[in-house]
C-alpha cells in the first residue's frame, strides 16, 4: 500500500460520496471546504485516477471512483471494528447487518451477494430473514431489521419506509415437466388444477389479481395461498399444481429444467424490486457496503433497470 495514503484521505472521500457534497462532507468532518477539496485532490494524485466528477449539478463517482469506494469503505470499517474490539475485547463486536429478503430476492440474489461481500468485507456478519412483504416490513418498522430487499408494496404498507428501485421483475406461472396443461397452455385453464396462489398481503397479489381480471379469469377454486419457496417447489415438482410466483424465486429451477414456465404473457405484472429502509434514518457503513454489493450483483446478472 502507498504510504502516502492516510486515513484522512479515505474519510474525506467516503464522506463526500455519502453526503453527495463537498460542503456537507466538510461540515461533517469539521473541515473547511478548501481543506476537504485539497485532501481529495491529494488522494486522486496519489492514486493517479480521477475519483469524482464535479459539476454544477453536484458530484458523481467515476468508474474508477466507484471501484475504489467499496474498498475505501471496507478499510474504514475494518479499522472501526478494530477500535471497537479493543474497547470490547473478547466480545463479538464488529460489523453486522440484519437483512430481510423476500423469496424472489433470497433465491436469485442473496447467494451471489454473500459471495461478493465475503471478498469485499469478510469481517461483516449478515443475519438474513425471509418472509412475506408484510412480515418483513413490520420487522423493519420495529427496528428488528436494518434493510429489506423485495418488491414495492401497496402504498398503505410502505408508510415510514424509503424505497430505492434496483430492477423490475414479473410474475411467472410454473409447472412440473410433463404437466397436462403443457399440451394446451392458457391462463383460463389453470382453474382445472390446484393452484398455489399469492396470499392477500403479499406484494405480488395485486399484480396477479389485475392480470386475472384483465383476462376474465376468476380466482382459482382449488387454490392454496402461499409464497413459501420451499413449499412451492416441493408441491409443484411433486404434483399437478400450478405455481404463481415471482420469476426470481424459480429462475434457477427454470434454467435447469426442473420447472417449466407456462408461455403466458405476464408483462403486466412487472413491478419494481428494491431496497427498503426506515425513512429519514441516517445511513451506516454496513448498509452502504451491502448496497454496493447488491448493485454489483444486479449488474453482473444483467438485471439492472
TrEMBL record:
Residues 5-62 form the HTH lysR-type domain. It comes from the Bacteria. The keyword DNA-binding applies. InterPro entries: HTH-type_LysR_regulators, LysR_HTH_N, LysR_subst-bd, TF_PcaQ, WH-like_DNA-bd_sf, WH_DNA-bd_sf. GO terms for biological process: 3,4-dihydroxybenzoate catabolic process; positive regulation of DNA-templated transcription. Keywords: DNA-binding, Transcription, Transcription regulation. One of its GO terms (cellular component) is cytosol. GO terms for molecular function: DNA binding; DNA-binding transcription factor activity. PANTHER family: HTH-TYPE TRANSCRIPTIONAL REGULATOR YBHD, NITROGEN ASSIMILATION TRANSCRIPTIONAL ACTIVATOR-RELATED. NCBIfam families: TF_pcaQ. Belongs to the LysR transcriptional regulatory family. This is LysR family transcriptional regulator. It comes from Paracoccus halophilus. The lineage of its organism: Bacteria, Pseudomonadati, Pseudomonadota, Alphaproteobacteria, Rhodobacterales.
Amino acid at each position: 500500500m502507498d504510504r502516502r495514503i492516510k486515513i484522512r484521505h479515505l474519510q474525506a472521500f467516503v464522506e463526500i460520496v455519502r453526503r453527495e457534497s463537498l460542503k456537507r462532507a466538510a461540515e461533517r468532518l469539521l473541515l473547511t471546504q478548501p481543506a476537504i477539496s485539497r485532501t481529495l485532490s491529494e488522494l486522486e494524485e496519489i492514486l493517479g485516477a480521477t475519483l469524482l466528477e464535479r459539476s454544477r449539478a453536484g458530484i458523481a463517482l467515476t468508474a474508477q471512483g466507484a471501484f475504489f469506494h467499496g474498498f475505501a469503505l471496507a478499510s474504514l470499517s475494518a479499522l472501526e471494528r478494530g477500535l471497537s474490539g479493543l474497547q470490547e475485547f473478547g466480545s463479538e463486536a464488529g460489523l453486522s447487518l440484519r437483512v430481510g429478503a423476500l423469496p424472489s430476492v433470497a433465491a436469485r440474489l442473496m447467494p451471489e451477494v454473500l459471495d461478493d461481500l465475503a471478498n469485499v468485507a469478510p469481517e461483516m456478519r449478515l443475519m438474513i430473514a425471509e418472509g412475506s412483504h408484510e412480515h418483513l416490513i413490520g420487522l423493519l418498522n420495529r427496528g428488528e431489521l436494518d434493510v429489506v430487499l423485495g418488491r414495492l408494496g401497496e402504498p398503505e404498507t410502505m408508510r415510514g419506509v424509503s424505497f430505492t428501485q434496483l430492477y423490475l421483475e414479473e410474475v411467472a406461472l410454473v409447472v412440473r415437466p410433463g404437466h397436462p396443461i403443457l399440451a394446451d397452455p392458457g391462463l383460463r385453464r389453470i382453474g382445472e388444477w390446484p393452484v398455489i396462489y399469492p396470499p392477500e398481503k403479499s406484494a405480488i397479489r395485486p399484480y396477479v389479481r389485475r392480470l386475472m381480471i384483465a383476462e376474465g379469469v376468476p380466482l382459482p377454486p382449488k387454490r392454496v395461498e402461499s409464497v413459501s419457496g420451499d413449499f412451492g417447489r416441493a408441491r409443484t415438482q411433486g404434483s399437478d399444481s400450478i405455481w404463481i410466483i415471482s420469476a426470481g424465486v424459480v429462475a434457477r429451477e427454470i434454467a435447469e429444467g426442473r420447472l417449466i414456465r407456462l408461455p403466458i404473457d405476464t408483462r403486466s405484472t412487472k413491478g419494481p424490486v428494491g431496497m427498503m429502509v426506515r425513512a429519514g434514518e441516517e445511513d451506516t457503513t454496513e448498509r452502504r457496503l451491502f448496497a454496493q454489493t447488491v448493485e454489483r450483483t444486479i449488474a453482473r446478472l444483467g438485471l439492472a433497470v
